[in-house]
Amino acid sequence: MNMEPVRQVGGMELQAGAMAQAHKHRQIQFVEDKQEFSRFPTKTGRRSLSRSISQSSTDSYGSAASYTDSSDDETSPRDKTQLNSKGTSDFCVKNIKQAEFGRREIEIAEQDMSALISLRKRAQGEKPLAGAKIVGCTHITAQTAVLIETLVALGAQCRWTACNIYSTQNEVAAALSEIGVAVFAWKGESEDDFWWCIDKCVNMEGWQPNMILDDGGDLTHWVYKKYPNVFKKIRGIVEESVTGVHRLYQLSKAGKLCVPAMNVNDSVTKQKFDNLYCCRESILDGLKRTTDVMFGGKQVVVCGYGEVGKGCTAALKAMGSIVYVTEIDPICALQACMDGFRVVKLNEVIRQVDVIITCTGNKNVVTRDQLDRMKNGSIVCNMGHSNTEIDVASLRTPELTWERVRSQVDHVIWPDGKRVILLAEGRLLNLSCSTVPTFVLSITATTQALALIELYNAPEGRYKQDVYLLPKKMDEYVASLHLPTFDAHLTELSDEQAKYLGLNKNGPFKPNYYRY
């Protein structure tokens, strides 16, 4: 995809207490969004799963990390009347009585998110988000709950919904609702439920958001299209995902982006840590939990050698797998070769591989024709953002039989008896079938919090109606907050050394074009 360069922002003061007060926002006009969401049919089942699911981030993720399964109670949360201990009902979760269990989950997560807690303690006296009304659409897990509670501690009012129909931890959603955060989400939502929850977050009488924290772009799209007057008054958007950033770039290129936006996905602290190290650990966890596969000697093809692909291949190679890589980019392909992997076309190895893992962010990376040629017992899964990478829709035909083995694991059976194991119906494997490391999520969450603070407090004119990368200084600050966990001690430049390199002793230490 060809995209115009994103400008690097600057001038941000990162010391707590030095945040400038926000200036009045400009009135923004915009053009109606024409984006549409395609659909694919799903299997017949209970109400929450029986409707067709959008090929947006509504079905890109899931989570096996919840103690409670959505099938425990067939009654839709929308049909229940629930009150928290304070007597309020401005929320919609599976079961508010699970709040105590959710609180324990959040407390466990806090232990490995010390940097985010440190930021909370440093800045809560100044309340840099006082007056901020943040509407968020992310995964609702114990880790994101720590982020939400940090935003509240810094002065923000928050209303929250899930960016995916399977990723919500019901007990965590209950815990947040118990303390007064308006949460509208539960595991196993239908598509209609998904959009209803987003609307309930945005459309609240007497409450109007002025900041958006999004993961996937669905919330931004909804506000942009359905509530133009609200959108005009948004001070800034913070977007985490590949898909959401792509949508923002499209709007910007078309001249339709009328709100300053921060691209968190391409920040160093997201790309080099969340995408790489998180996937390096969680790919094995997801595969092992779902299939009990032994990795030694298995032939695995990883489609895509970006940061996610690098993490997946490193983990599989260390376990003794024979790993192939497919790539369209000659630079990434050369990296794979230098790291000891054979770069191939998928069709060259499709009949012999045991596992296919997609992580490209593209569509139809694995086609029906290729699935037809895979050997019996092969495993197919996705580690990219969207479920479009594997052509799952082509498998929903009368000649093929689907057999549910366990949660998020299906046998797709061909007429000749061949079985292919499909994980999470082509959705993101780690959040669908396992969990992700809390510490890595702390890095991303801290980056998101600082991006919100920067956009909300930026003086008028600092940010135009465009997509911005995070300041290099901010990335370095996020990293520095996490170093004490490892008892790491940074070397300090002498005055002579700093002058020789032409650097400020306190950073930033690398130019904007530096690739880590």
UniProtKB/TrEMBL annotation:
One GO-annotated biological process of the protein = one-carbon metabolic process
GO cellular component annotations, sorted alphabetically? Answer: cytosol
Residue stretches of biased makeup (Low complexity): 50-60
Spell out the InterPro entries in the cross-references: Adenosylhomocyst_ase-like_sf, Adenosylhomocysteinase-like, Ado_hCys_hydrolase_NAD-bd, NAD(P)-bd_dom_sf, S-Ado-L-homoCys_hydrolase_CS
The protein's required cofactors: NAD(+)
State the PANTHER family in the record.
ADENOSYLHOMOCYSTEINASE, S-ADENOSYLHOMOCYSTEINE HYDROLASE-LIKE PROTEIN 1
Q: What is this protein called?
A: Adenosylhomocysteinase like 1
